[in-house]
Amino acid sequence: MDMSPQALWTSMGTTAKAVVIVMLIMSIYSIWVMVERFITFQRAKNQSLKLLGALSNVLTRGDYQQAIDITKKYKESHLAKVISAGLLEFEAARRDKRTADPELPLEAARQGMDRTAMITVAELKENLGVLATIGATAPFVGLFGTVIGIIHAFGKMATSGGGIASVSAGIAEALITTAFGLFVAIPAVWAYNYFQNRIDRFTVEMSNSGSEMAIYFLKEAGNAPKSSVA
């Protein structure tokens, strides 16, 4: 039996060929998601490291506008989004003349950072559902092709007669779709778990940065001059 890809493709039935084409599309799509997410996560990591170094001295001086300008330079950093949201909310609330309670700027900054962190996590999870779906369904798509192939092979045996040897080639070809399904699913599941773990780490980093910024804003609010009450 010739096991070359060209010979196997030629000997496959229409249903088996359709299954292989579907799984090929799933494989290409999953590879694209893996590459796109990996590049996105690496940029977020690298830009976040640069951001922290650039912000340290600026925040010490209390220069909020320069700090906001710096965060805008690192748009792909998950930490930049959270820190920028806190700075914008804190500065806006502090400048609002209607704000009498000194705790309001701090609370506004906390809510802004929490809200931005949740949005950022959702953005980081973009297309990961595709990997989960492919990892869960690809083996069943391959199994479907195998079942159809085996039905076709035994149908031939029932029509033409002969023993199992006469349909062994057809059964072997049918089992290839199951193997192909596993070949597509396993990398997708591995990649999904890998990216999910990285998102968990990013979430912890955003939470820690938010807590550190909240402490910083608390100190700034305490150092702010208090208005006298007549």
Description:
This protein is mainly α and 230 residues long. It has one domain. Helices cover 84% and strands 0% of the residues. It has seven helices and no strands. α5 packs antiparallel against α7 (168-223). The termini are far apart. Residues 225-230 have low confidence and may be disordered.
Draw up the topology in text:
Elements (H helix, E strand, L loop, with lengths): L4 H7 L2 H48 L2 H10 L4 H18 L7 H22 L3 H33 L7 H56 L7
Helix pairs in contact: 2-3, 2-6, 2-7, 3-4, 4-5, 4-7, 5-7, 6-7
Specify the number of helices: 7
Strand content: under 5%
Molecular shape: rod-shaped
Major sheet description: none
User: Considering DSSP H and I runs of 4 or more, what fraction of the residues is helical?
Assistant: over 70%
Our Rg estimate from Cα atoms comes to 29 Å
- Counting helices, strands and paired strands, the structural category is mainly alpha
How would you spell out the order of helices and strands? HHHHHHH
Strands, count: 0
User: For the residues shown, what is the average pLDDT?
Assistant: 83
End-to-end gap: 98 Å
The stretches of 5 or more residues where confidence is low (pLDDT under 50) are: 225-230
Work out the count of structural domains: 1
